[in-house]
Amino acid sequence: MKFLDPRIECKCREAPEHKDHYCQAEVGEDHEQGEIPSWFIKLCKEHRPENDDMPGDVDAFLRRFPGPTTWFDHVGSLKEEETGMEVLVVEPYGLTHNSFVEIYEVCKILGITVGIFATSSHYPTKTLRIIFYPPS
Q1: What Cα–Cα distance (Å) separates residue 44 from each residue in 22, 38, 40?
Q2: What ranges do the domains of the chain cover?
Q3: Staple partner for 129: which of 79, 87, 108, 117, CB 3.0–4.6 Å?
């Protein structure tokens, strides 16, 4: 698994007269909340625990982790303009050590890549954007 470098830009950072001010929060591109990409559902179905007979492949897969998966919040999908790739977007209010461990394990098990960004569309400046990319 690899982590992608964040691509957060301050559009006025290069202007000398702007060196000592704070820029307005950059808002992430809005995503389709509630729409989980089919590739993610398929991978969760392939890796769901055999003894879990509850409905929902994604929920069943996430239940393999102890405790609440609070990072799996404000879930949706987004089609990236640059690549045309459909990605899974989650925008939690914060991340704990356990959150990072779970995200790492999810990526390792499913063979996917993750990027964590400061710009989000759900309550900007209070949430983070986590983007999961399908296996290549």
Answers
A1: 41, 10, 6
A2: 26-133
A3: 117
